[in-house]
Structure formats: structure tokens, C-alpha cells
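Q: Entry one of two.
A:
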Amino acid sequence: LATGPRQNNGIFYEIRTYDIKPAKMKEFLELANKHFHFRTAHSELVGFWYADLGALNKVLHIWKYDNFAHRTAVRHALASDKDWQGKFISVVLPMMEKQHNEVAYLVPWCQLGKPPKEGGVYEWVTFQMKPGGPALWGEAFRAAINAHINTGYTRLIGVFHTEYGLLNTVHVLWWNESPDHRAAGRHSAHEDARVVAAVRDSVRFLESQQNVLLIPMQCSPLK
């Protein structure tokens, strides 16, 4: 009951967030765009973004793995990759203030999506739910997400439920054409009786939530 249902295969996603020293943020982004192909040669990058609103000097990237043995093999290969270690890792480590990672699964009712076009913005919303897992709050949470999808103003990319990290955490990744398009859509959603009812039911299980507006990097598959 602590983790609840998930997809039947072993695929999981590692979510990594780095806090970068303010004076080094521009340099970090330039190096990442220039050298990140050394990293993506080893495993699949879902997306790479930097925070624009809701956090500053922070980057977030998501990696897909077939299983934990796959991740272990990739980490070993990276440790031996001279280009990755010499041209990127050794240079950017002094630029970082903090690193954090989580392992998460896609919820079983969600497949990883893609935006309809390039050039939009992403919203990363983190929900800290009450202990008990999806057995307690899963259906109400799903209904709240679907209510927002049904308004049509936003595109769902993925819903991730943590397995390692702070438990009972759900990350939802949305795509919007622009921050203003999102703002207008949210305004309309708040006046939609279906959304209001679904959210009212879901927040009974909510401890806290936080959202960050993300801008995709040039090296990000999701743009």
C-alpha cells in the first residue's frame, strides 16, 4: 500500500535537480548544451530544463532506465568515460551548490507524452500527499488531474510517483504554449465546476504543493 500500483515492467525514471551557483549559471548552461551528448550516449534523456519562475539557478533533468541493473551499468560506464568526466563533470562540479535525485515510476494511468510543438514552457508541480500511497489518495488525485486535462488549456506530459526520495510525492509535468496561455487557462479552470469539485476532493489528502516554470535546454529532447 505504500507504493501502490504502477506499470508492470521495470522501467523507472531518475529525476535529478542541481542547484547552481548564481554566478556560474550561464556558464553551466553553455557547457551542458555543448557537452551533454557525451552523457546521452549512455542512456535516454527524457528532458533537461532550467527553472525560470518558482526557483532560481536550478536545473532539472529526467532519465529513463529499463531497471536498476541498467542504471548501475550506465553509472559504471560514465565513470570510465574520459570525455564525460574530463570535459563536463570535472568542470561543472565546482559550479554546483547542491545535488538531489529521486527515483519515480509513471503512474499506471499515464503514459509519457510529448508537446504538440516546440517552443512552449513546462510546469513542474510537486504534490506532497498524506502517507498511505495511491491506495488512499490515488483515485481522487487522478480525478483532479483529469479535470484539468479536460479543460483543454494544458497538455499533460507525465505523472511521476516517487519510489526513492521523499515518499508520497507526486510530480506532474505539464506543457503550455506560454506563461500567459497558462495563466488564462488556470483562470478559466478555477471557474469550472468540474475542476473545483475534483480539486476539493483531492486536497483532503494534500500536505503541500509547489510549482516551477521550466524552460527547456537546447540539448533537451522535450522542447
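Q: Entry two of two.
A:
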Amino acid sequence: EEFYGKELILADRETVEQEADSILKEADVSDVAFLVVGDPFGATTHSDLVLRAVKLGIPYKVIHNASIMNAVGCCGLQLYNFGETVSIVFWTDIWKPESFFDKIKKNRQNGMHTLCLLDIKVKEQSLENLMKGRKIYEPPRYMTVNQAAEQLLAIIQTRRLQGEEPEITENTICVGLARVGAPDQKIASGTLYQMSTVELGGPLHSLIVTGTMHPLELEMLKLFSVDSSSFENNTFQRTT
């Protein structure tokens, strides 16, 4: 506000998803800037804003930004070797989805790395407050690399009990990243089990489950290794 000399309106998820019309209300007669963390089209919600603007005859211009989708290259894994990105959500006592695990498995079978975006709970309501219509929100929660790794390890154990030998194991090489792009960013590479114990500090965290690696990718990951012996038995592919 000091830099631009204009008031900023904080738009949380609820505002963007449920009150999009208020953002576009004055945009036909004045300039409205919508600022986001990451690249504008990292979320379908922002595509919805564009479609609404077009239907209203409001011209728009996009200024692209860096996002975790490309910033993960800082760990040394090549972006063109990544498969489908997945989201790992917080489990509850009665809700423990595993669909993201199958997507990671498919990527790994194809030799591709998987970027796992970890759950964020901001302005979330308890079931009771939601049902009673009370605008009381739970404290913010941000999933850590440890929590994501623990959930993956639990799924591996479950699959083994079901007679399956999962494509991903405790020894699969993974990368934990925290606060990418910030001065205090942290990167740690090692086995999935090691990711369940590594400490990366405050949010935001991301996890990568590796696929088949080129020797240069392996060399880069060793720069961030929790334990260099983790990489001794890993295979690689040569690119032409």
C-alpha cells in the first residue's frame, strides 16, 4: 500500500470463489489488479475469473509469475521428467483417501518424478460450526514433509497387508522442500523413511517422489542428501 499509494483488499479463498462478482464489479470502468502467490493459472479458480470477465466484456491482461510448479527445479530434478502433480491431503480419523498414491505409482512406473503439493488448512470451519453457520475458523494448519511421508508410509504398509508390493517403498528416493524461493529455503534428499524424520522448519512444504534418474539429477540430489549412502543402489537412465 505504501509503494502503490492504494488500498489493498485481502481476498481469501472464500472471497475469490464465492464473491467473484465483487472483484469484477468496477472492472468495466476502472483498472482492477488481482495479485496471487505463484502463477495466476496455478488454480482453476483464476480461470473462472477470466471467463467471467470475458462474458462481461471486460478486457484482461496476465502478468505471469514463478510458482512451485517450476521452482522445484532448484533441487536439480529436470522439469520435463515430472509426471502428473498430486495433492496430499490431511487425513482424519474417518477419512483417509489414497488416490494420490496411485497417481504417484503410475508416474513412477513411467519413470517420472511426482511433485506432491501438501495440504493447507486456512479459514477452515469445524463440522459443527459449519452446520450451525457460525463464522468461526480453526487455527491455520500446513502439512509438513514429515506428515506427508508418514501418510505414504502408512499406505505402503496397508498395501503390503493386502498382498501388494508397492512401486514406492521406504527406500524410494524423495526430496523435501520448504519455503522455496525464500532466503531461508531448505532442501533435503533421501529415502521416504528419512523424509518422515527430517526437520525443514516452517511452511510451506512440498515433497517430490523420484522416478528414474539421470546421473546429473543424482549428482544434484546428493548436494542435499540427508545421508549419502541413500543413493548407493539407485539406477539412472541415459538421455540421448
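A: Comment on entry two: DSSP finds nine helices and seven strands in the chain. Confidence is low (pLDDT under 50) at residues 235-240.
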